[in-house]
Amino acid sequence: MLANVQTPPARTANTQWDAKSYQQFARLRERPVLELLDHVDLEHPQRIYDLGCGTGIATQLLAKRWPLADLTGIDSSAEMLEEATYLPIKALWQKCDVREWRAQSPADLLFAAAVLHFINDHQSLLPQLLSQLNTGGCLAAHMPNWRDALWYELMLETLETGGPQGRPLGSARLRQFMAERTVLSLKSYYQLLAPLTKELDIWETEHLQVVEGTSPIFDWVKVSALRPVLLALGEREKERFIEQYLRVVHQHYPQEANGQTLFPFKRIFILATV
Fold first, then answer.
1. Is 8 within a domain?
2. Where is the Methyltransferase domain positioned along the sequence (predicted)?
3. What CATH number is associated with residue 156?
4. CA-CA distance, 169 to 232, in Å (whole number)?
5. Measured between alpha carbons, how far is 34 from 171 in angstroms, rounded to an integer?
6. Which of 56, 57, 100, 167 could link 84 by a cystine bridge, Cβ 3.0 to 4.6 Å?
7. 10 Å Cβ neighbour count for 96?
8. 35 with 205: CB under 8 angstroms?
């Protein structure tokens, strides 16, 4: 039983992902990829790596824009990569943790869509990624900035007080793990990356996502932000957590009159050219 977790799960350590559920909001997940791609000013990149490619949402768009490039999708999840292999594109697929991955040959474009926020120590990670680019090469990344989002705070509160008689759920180390901040401030990214780059563009957006379904916000976050919680809790604690979390999420994110739910979502974008 995993009800009494003694150590927090390492970020990205568990490589099992629900690829089918992740595809539920594929069009909304594709939108920030398109926004990021629109800012990439490379005419003919020869070697492209899609880091944390998942089911290939971004990989497919990269292949469409640069069909002659050597394109490789990198992901730690066999389930995600299996889904990606069905795409009708010319690409190689490699199972590897982004933290351990090294380019076999220098890249012209490293594309990282919604993956870097799962990895801590960006002060070391991002310079290491930049070092694998050719001169003139680009790191293009976007990541959710969800740590201060209401739904994330509700998750932390549910872990702290969602047990019987208001007791915590899971271990103290799990709760500490979930409270950590992996994403830096815009200023911190600038100070980290400016000395290492020739061109640097950093911006943040907030998209008022309109989602549909009985519990669409839970359906979105259960395959991403909530994975460590759902993997760590034992069955009884997990059932209680889901029950308590759904209750407060529905209170704070009620359906509109047309049955849709408004889901504000912040993202950070980084475009770094060396």
1. no
2. 48-137
3. 3.40.50.150
4. 10
5. 39
6. 56
7. 13
8. yes
Q: pTM for the full model?
A: 0.90
CA triplet 60, 82, 26: central angle to 5 degrees? 45
- Concatenate the DSSP letters of all residues of the chain into one string: --SS-SSPPPTTT-----HHHHGGGHHHHHHHHHHHHHT---S--SEEEEET-TTTHHHHHHHHH-TTSEEEEEES-HHHHHHHTTSSS--EEEE--TTT---SS-EEEEEEES-GGGS--HHHHHHHHHTTEEEEEEEEEEEE--TTSHHHHHHHHHHHH-SGGG---S-HHHHHHHH---SPPHHHHHHHHGGG-SEEEEEEEEEEEEE-SSSHHHHHHTTTTTHHHHHHS-HHHHHHHHHHHHHHHHHHSPPPTTS-EEEEEEEEEEEEE-
Average pLDDT score, the chain: 92
AA identity, residue 198:
K
Residue 40 domain-assigned? yes
Q: d(Cα 215, Cα 249) in Å, to the nearest integer?
A: 9
| Token pair listed for 189 | 């990214």
Residue 224 CA to residue 233 CA, distance in Å, equals: 16
Structure confidence by residue, pLDDT tens digits, 19-64: 455 567 878 989 999 999 999 999 999 999 999 999 999 999 999 9
Q: Is residue 140 part of a domain?
A: yes
Q: Alpha carbon 10 to chain centroid distance?
A: 15
Tell me, what amino acid is at 238? K
> Whole domain around residue 69: which residue ranges?
19-273
Q: CA 73, CA 59: separation in Å to the nearest integer?
A: 7
Q: How many domains does the chain have?
A: 1
Closest C-alpha among 138, 142, 158 to residue 249: 158
